[in-house]
From TrEMBL:
This is Uncharacterized protein. One of its GO terms (cellular component) is extracellular region. It is found in: Secreted. InterPro entries: Gp5/Vgr_OB (IPR006531), Gp5_Vgr_C (IPR054030), T6SS_RhsGE_Vgr_subset (IPR017847), T6SS_Vgr_RhsGE (IPR006533), T6SS_VgrG/RHS (IPR050708), Vgr_OB-fold_dom_sf (IPR037026).
Length: 700
């Protein structure tokens, strides 16, 4: 029989180890298996095989699923499955075959070869993980062991992380343990391995052998042959703290003492800032998880055995240990496997063998992973574009926060769903006072991250770009500093405050698109070095509750079209047009008009009118008083006309006709005649004599 013929006769049937690959049955013959399985860690197996094929190409195996089995007492087989992560083609063997080494990992290992930058909002950790797995077409995940509250994460960023590191980090932050459960395939189907996720000791599955015997002599294939218990020191207390801007006077802080029975650790406290919580309930959960991660390492058991069924995530009861306290329930958290089948090349007849080393903890302990996967950091600043709902120009909340689209977020929609609310740094601020400028949709802003945490972005500035140019024309206006806004919505107008610092042309410019209001609670002082000009297109109104004083050493002129009030050193002149004026001066008051001059009190019942036709006086009563002392008056009313004088009353017409009254009597004179009439009687004097007429004439 040739070597080739001998190779063709070799099969894995009935052997300790066997492997199935996409190459077909018995193309690879499994000779040796070494590997490790661990809670909260990826399993890895190194499978040494031999093959009659000496030219296996990587495309035939690398990245593809394989399965391998270990024979159990009684003839049943335990199965593992995985993905080929590496293929080593080794030396050729003397029997015409070639040695290969296959390294196998779980399907989750493949996620270490994909990375992303993306944002998850308002999703629980389970929902985030399910999204990642669903997108990869993976459904071999069991979350039934997570029975505690699932709090949605308001904002969770994967930034330049492999999917694997991101998954690890989230599981560690939640304090969820995980491992793989290998399930044999149905007839004709490959087996599978399922990711099991749990948040407590309740999820430890019962082992295929509920109890395992401890024995150091005459041990059978199921016995544990070595057993040692280890206790490790751990801190006596853990304190977690963080800060929430919505409750600035009450920083969140929570402490949790360890329940490990070590009296000497009480003074040792671990304080950690940045617990990533915002309320008391979350603080309590985070602190408890982190002290549990320390406590999970407090009491461990290192053991060795030949039991081929031991696997992580399963519990068993130890029996027959001489120290009775050791006979209790335990959960396996890690196993190292070593199996060898030398029968393919062993001429000395050495038997196949299997052994393992494993670590276990008391089955009542919740295994909480330590937070080993670091949070990614974004050092320095990034730029982002302000976003918001369609049709809006400004999108903000009661804190003046905005939302942005990061250039690295390839899943962004370009609307308010792209990020969490980002606080905006302001130059000044206090309790309802300070500065406030809200970046508008479309602006490019500078984003920094609190302590480099991608989950804590904050806007620290605004930068121009080709679509959002500066408000000034540069470099021409390089000496001007401007604060210019844009009317919203529409942007059809603006308000502006700018400063021109060009030497010789310095200027402060203020523009209000609509109204400008100014409130001064006490005094306002305005000093103008040269001229002051104010122009109002329609109305200029000033209201002064007390007094108003305007002082100037020169002229004051108020002018509207053809009307003018002028105050100068000679007096005050009020004029309209070219022929109407009132002038007040030391010489008196003068009213001039080329038309009519009227003085009216109330309605038209009392007035004095001066026209080209003369002077007309009208009133309920009209009194003329000479010297203003009541000695000489003419009083007219509806009762008649009274003329009063302490000295002389005289009425005359031309030079020949007059009536004169003084203290000596009444003198009447007429050029032709004098006639007096009373109740049908008359007295007439003329050149012909004196005539009297009446019903009765008395002469004395």
């Amino acid at each position: 029989m040739t070597l080739d013929d001998y190779a063709e006769t070799l099969t894995q049937a009935g052997r300790l180890l066997a492997i199935e690959t996409p190459l077909g049955p018995d193309v690879f013959l499994l000779e040796e298996m070494t590997g490790s399985e661990e809670v909260c860690s990826l399993f890895s197996f190194r499978l040494r095989v031999r093959s009659k094929r000496q030219d296996v190409a990587p495309s035939e195996l690398v990245g593809l699923p394989v399965s391998w089995t270990l024979e159990l007492p009684g003839g049943a087989r335990r199965e593992w499955s995985g993905v080929v992560g590496a293929l080593e083609a080794g030396p050729t063997l003397g029997d015409g075959m070639r040695a290969y080494v296959v390294t196998a990992h779980p399907w989750l290992w493949l996620f270490g070869h994909t990375s992303d930058c993306r944002i998850f909002q308002h999703k629980t950790t389970q929902q985030i993980l399910e999204t990642i797995f669903d997108e990869a077409g993976i459904h071999d995940v069991d979350f039934s062991g997570v029975v505690g509250p699932k709090t949605p994460r308001e904002y969770c960023v994967q930034y330049n992380e492999t999917d694997l590191r991101f998954i690890f980090r989230l599981l560690e932050e939640e304090g969820w343990a995980w491992w793989f459960r290998h399930e044999p395939g149905q007839e004709g189907e490959a087996g599978r391995h399922v990711l099991v996720v749990a948040d407590g000791a309740h999820a430890w599955a019962p082992g295929e052998e509920p109890s395992i015997r401890y024995g150091t002599s005459d041990a059978d294939l199921n016995d544990i042959t070595a057993w040692s218990r280890r206790y490790s020191f751990l801190p006596g207390r853990l304190v977690e703290a963080d800060w929430n801007f919505e409750t600035p006077r009450a920083p969140q802080m929570q402490d949790q003492p360890s329940v490990a029975p070590i009296g000497s650790n009480k003074p040792f406290e671990m304080y950690h800032w940045g617990g990533r919580f915002t309320d008391r309930d979350r603080a309590d959960a985070v602190t408890k998880r982190r002290i549990e991660a320390h406590e999970a390492q407090f009491e461990t058991v290192q053991a060795e055995s030949c039991n081929r069924r031991i696997q992580p995530g399963q519990r068993f009861a130890l029996q027959s240990h001489p120290a009775a306290a050791e006979n209790a329930d335990y959960a396996v958290v890690s196993v190292q496997h070593m199996a060898q089948d030398p029968t393919y090349s062993n001429s000395r007849g050495e038997p196949p063998r299997y052994a393992n080393r494993f670590v276990a903890i008391p089955a009542t302990v919740r295994y909480t992973p330590e937070q080993r996967t670091p949070q990614p950091r974004i050092d320095g600043v990034q730029t982002a574009i302000v976003v918001g709902p369609a049709g809006e120009e400004i999108h903000t909340d009661q804190y003046g926060r905005i939302k942005v689209r990061f250039p690295w977020d390839r899943y962004a929609r370009g609307d308010e769903r792209d990020s969490c609310w980002l606080r905006v740094s302001q130059p000044w601020g206090g309790r309802n006072w300070g500065a406030q400028t809200i970046p508008r949709i479309g602006m490019e802003v500078l984003v920094a991250y609190v302590e480099g945490d991608p989950d804590k972005p904050m806007v620290v500035g605004v930068v121009p770009n080709s679509e959002m140019m500066p408000p000034l024309s540069l470099p021409g206006d390089k000496t001007r500093t401007s604060l210019k806004t844009s009317s919203s919505p529409g942007g059809s107008g603006f308000n502006e405050l700018s400063f021109e610092d060009k030497a010789g042309a310095e200027e402060v410019f203020l523009h209000a698109q609509k109204d400008a209001s100014e409130m001064v609670n006490n005094n306002k002082l305005l000093t103008i070095g040269n001229a002051y000009t104010a122009a109002a297109q329609t109305l200029h109104m000033a209201t002064v509750q007390a007094s108003q004083t305007t002082m100037t050493p020169a002229d004051i002129v108020l002018q509207h079209l053809g009307s003018m009030i002028r105050m100068d050193a000679t007096g005050i002149t009020i004029s309209f047009g070219s022929g109407h004026a009132i002038q007040l001066s030391d010489a008196g008051v003068q009213i001039r008009s080329t038309a009519k001059v009227e003085a009216v009190q109330g309605d038209t019942a009392n007035f004095v009118s001066l026209t080209d036709d003369g002077v007309y006086t009208k009133g309920v009563t009209v009194t003329q008083d000479a010297a203003g002392e009541g000695d000489h008056q003419i009083h007219m009313s509806k009762e008649g006309v009274q003329i009063h004088s302490k000295t002389l009353v005289c009425a005359w017409q031309a030079d020949d006709n007059s009536v004169q009254i003084d203290h000596e009597g009444v003198v009447s004179s007429g050029r032709t005649h004098i006639k007096k009439l009373a109740a049908g009687s008359s007295l007439e004097m003329n050149g012909e004599g004196i005539s009297q007429k009446g019903p009765l004439i008395r002469l004395n």
